[in-house]
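In the laboratory, one determines a bound structure by crystallizing the protein with its ligand and collecting diffraction data. In a computational setting the workflow is compressed into a single prediction: the sequence and the ligand go in, and a structural description comes out. We illustrate the idea with iron/sulfur cluster.
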Amino acid sequence: MEQIDRLRALGLFDARVPRYTSYPTAPVFSPAVGSDHQTTALAALPADVPVSVYLHIPFCERLCWFCACRTQGTTTLSPVESYLGTLEQELALLRDVLPQGLRMGRMHWGGGTPTILPPHLIHRLAQAVKAVIPPTEDWEFSVEIDPTMVDRAKIDALAAEGMNRASIGIQDFDPIVQAAIGRAQPFDVTHQCVDDLRAAGVGSLNTDLVYGLPHQDDARIADTVEKVLSLAPDRVALFGYAHVPWVAKRQKLIDEAVLPDDMARYRLAELAGARFRDAGFATIGIDHFAREGDELETAARGGRLRRNFQGYTADTCATLIGLGASSISRLPQGYVQNAAATPAYIQRIEAGTLAGARGHVMSADDLLRARAIEMLMCDFRLDRRALRADHGDLAATLDPVLAGIAARFGDLVTLDDDALSIPPEGRALTRIVASALDAHVPEGVRYSRAS
Ligand SMILES: C[S@@+](CC[C@H](N)C(=O)[O-])C[C@H]1O[C@@H](n2cnc3c(N)ncnc32)[C@H](O)[C@@H]1O
Ligand code: SF4
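The predicted complex, in C-alpha cell form:
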C-alpha cells in the first residue's frame, strides 16, 4: 500500500479530532466551574512566580469569511472603547483577588484585531494591565497584527509599551484566494507593516499562513511562501484551514466547491513545509516553523516546547490569566473560561464578579493525559520515563492505551519501555494518535479535520 493510502486508512482525511491547544479541550468545560473557582484559584497563586497574561480584543473592522476566531465586526470605535472600560473593571476585580507583588513574565494580545485600538487606547490598556500585574524585567509582549489595520503610530505605541514580538496575519497573498475568503491584503501593505515593526525595534516576527483555502493550488501557495520568505520572518505558523461553518457561521460565505480536495490539501501542506525547511526553517510541532536560534527552535531542540492556546510557545509559566470575553485562564487547579459572548462577559463584570462561566477542575488522570498529549503534540515523543517520574504509579494506567496505539498504527509509531514515538512518516497522524489518549469525548461536538 502506498504511504498516503496507509495514512488515509488510519483516518488522515476522515478523522475529526481536536487540535489539543489544551487538554481537556474547551467543549468539555462545564458550567459548574465558574467565577468562584476562578477567584479561589487566583487568590492562591504564589506571589513570587510570574504569570502569563492573555488579553482578548473581540473586534474587527473587516470580517474575513474563513475566520473561526471569536470576534465581531464594527465600523466605529465606540463598542471598542466601552469594552476597554469593562477590561479595566475586570482588572480592578483582579487587583482585589491577586496576591500582592505578582508579576507578569509574558503578555499576549489576541483577537479579533488588537490593532483596531488607536494609540491612546493602546497606552491606556497596557498601562491598566501593568498597574495591576507589573511586568518582569525580561518580559515578553506579543501582539496579533492585521497589516491592513495598523499604521506606524499604532506600532510605535505598542513598541513603547514593550511589544517585542509580533504575529502578522497573512493567510495567502494570491488575489483570487483572498477574494474567495473575503480578505484583501496587498503584499506591499504587509511589507510596509513588517518594515514599520522592524523600524520600531520589534525583534521577533511571526507570520500566519493557512493552507486548504478556496482556489489555493500548488503554484499559488508556492508563490505565497516565496513572498513570505522575502519578508524574512523568524517564525511561520501554517494552519490547516478549519472549515466549521456550523460554528463559524460566516464561513457559509465560502464556496465549498472550490476548496481543495483531500489530496490537494495534503500536498499544499507538504509543499509549503518542504520549502520552509529548504529555506533553513526547523519544523516545530504539527504546524509551525522557526529559524535556527529562534526561541521556539531552541526550545523544541531542548525538549522545552509547550502547547498553549496560541499554538506553540517556549513559555514555561504554569499559569495563564485570560482577560476579556471568551478568554481561557489556565490555573494550577484547572481551566476557567470567561463568558464567551461579549454582552454576557460585560454583564458579569458589571455585576461585580469575575467573568468565569465554564471550566474544568483537573483530576490526577487529567494532568497525566494532558502532559502525555502535550508531549506528542510538541515532541512527537511521549516520554514514559518522565511520566513515571512525575505521575508515579498512575502513569502505568496508560500502558494499555499505548499498546492499543502501537497495535493500531503499526510502524507509524514505535513503542518501547522508554517512549512512544511518532517517526516523520507518521506525523501527519499526530492529532489522531493524541486523541487515543483523550478520556473526555464530548457529546454532539464536531471538531475540524485532522489534516
Ligand atoms: C485571531 S486571528 C488574528 C489575526 C488578525 N486579526 C489578522 O487578521 O491578521 C489569528 C489567526 O488565526 C488563524 N485562523 C483564523 N481562522 C482560521 C481557520 N478557520 N482555520 C485555520 N486558521 C484560522 C489565522 O491564520 C489568523 O491569522
Ligand atoms: S482573520 Fe483577523 S481580521 Fe479577519 S475576521 Fe479573523 S480576526 Fe478579524
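The radius of gyration is 21 Å. Keep in mind that any predicted model is a hypothesis to be tested, not a measurement.
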